[in-house]
Structures are given as structure tokens and as C-alpha cells.
Amino acid sequence: MERILVVGSTGAGKSTLARALGRRLDVPYHEMDALYFAGPDWAVNERLAEDVGEIAARPRWIIDSLGYPDVRDLLWDRADTVVWLDYGRHVIMPRVLRRSLRRTVTRESLFGGNRERWRDWLTRDHPAWWAWSRYPVRRREIGERVDDPRFAPLTVHRLRTPRTTAAWLAGLPSGG
């Protein structure tokens, strides 16, 4: 495990696991949303493909995403391992609601200095709405990629519960 994608639905805990996995294996972790959002008003990084390409060319990395469409194939072609947090909605929805509530109340600064706001809760782009509506689509996309012969060389760890994930992580050797 040298080039790792941690994938799953919004709220599954991709960033949390990717960060812990990076510490455990001593592999650099890169947060996809921090690469994607470049500034205020959720401005998109015009250099995303170049930035991700530079990271993906390195021998060791972890990225917490299926990948935005313009870099998805690049990441999947360069990865050697996919860790799929395939949790049910009953797991992810409470997580995403708690996270968004915390971020809104504390005015936590996110990617590019952006913040979740109360008025955003009623938009389709809010993480709670996004997690609910995109859940079946994201699950299908990941499943199709995992089953795609192009990506057969990848080692896939499909983890279906947080308990299984914790046990899997604890069983990994430390320090790479």
C-alpha cells in the first residue's frame, strides 16, 4: 500500500480514515477538497489536474476521494489500493448532519477559507442534501470502478461498518 484512494459516500469518514491511515503507514495524505476548492465563494482550483498529477506521480500518497471527474481516471490508474467505506445511509447521515451542524455553529474555516452557513442548509449543494441524494449514485460509481477490468490490478478493501474499519486499521503494520 503505497498509493491509496479512500473512497465512499459523503459523510462516510474518508478524510478521517485517510488521515489515520497516513499516520499509521507514514504515507503523505492529501485532502481532495482542499486541492479542489481554491478560494472564497467555493472557487474551483484551475490547476487541479496539474496539482493532482504532481501528487499522483509521487511514489507514496493517500487521497480521500473517488476523484473529481477531471482527475478520476488519473488517480485510479496510479493507485495501487482502494479502501472503500461502503457504509449504509443509517451510518453516514447522522455523521454528515453532526459535522455540518458543528461547522455551521462554530463557523469553522474550511477549504479556501469557506464556511458552511445556515442559509446553505436549504440548497442542493449542502453536504446533508448532497449525501442523501448522491448516495446511490456514488455507491454505483465506486462499484462499477471496482468491477472494471481496467482497475483489476488494484487491491480493494471494501469495509461495510465502522467497526470493521477500525479493526482493519488496527491490524495494519505501523510505519509502512
Q: What topology does this entry show?
A:
Elements: E1 3-8, H1 14-25, E2 29-30, H2 32-36, E3 37-39, E4 43-44, H3 48-56, E5 61-63, H4 72-78, E6 81-85, H5 89-106, H6 127-147, E7 155-159, H7 162-170
Parallel strand pairs: 1-5, 1-6, 2-5, 6-7
Antiparallel strand pairs: 3-4
Helix pairs in contact: 5-6
InterPro entries: Cytidylate_Kinase-2, P-loop_NTPase
Keywords: Kinase, Transferase
Protein name: Adenylate kinase
CATH architecture: 3-Layer(aba) Sandwich
Strand line-up across the major sheet? 2-5-1-6-7
How many structural domains does the protein architecture include? Answer: 1
Topology as H/E string? EHEHEEHEHEHHEH
Shape: globular
> What is the number of E strands?
7
Organism: Streptomyces griseoviridis
Keywords: Kinase, Transferase
Protein name: Adenylate kinase
GO molecular function: kinase activity
Plain-language structure description:
The chain has 176 residues and is α/β, with parallel strands linked by helices. The chain has one domain (3-170): Rossmann fold (3-Layer(aba) Sandwich), CATH 3.40.50. It has 7 helices and 7 strands; from the N terminus they run E-H-E-H-E-E-H-E-H-E-H-H-E-H. The strands form 2 sheets. It has a 5-stranded parallel sheet, sandwiched between helices. Strands 3-4 form a two-stranded antiparallel sheet. Helix 5 (89-106) crosses helix 6 (127-147).
Attribute tags:
single chain, alpha/beta, 176 residues, Rossmann fold
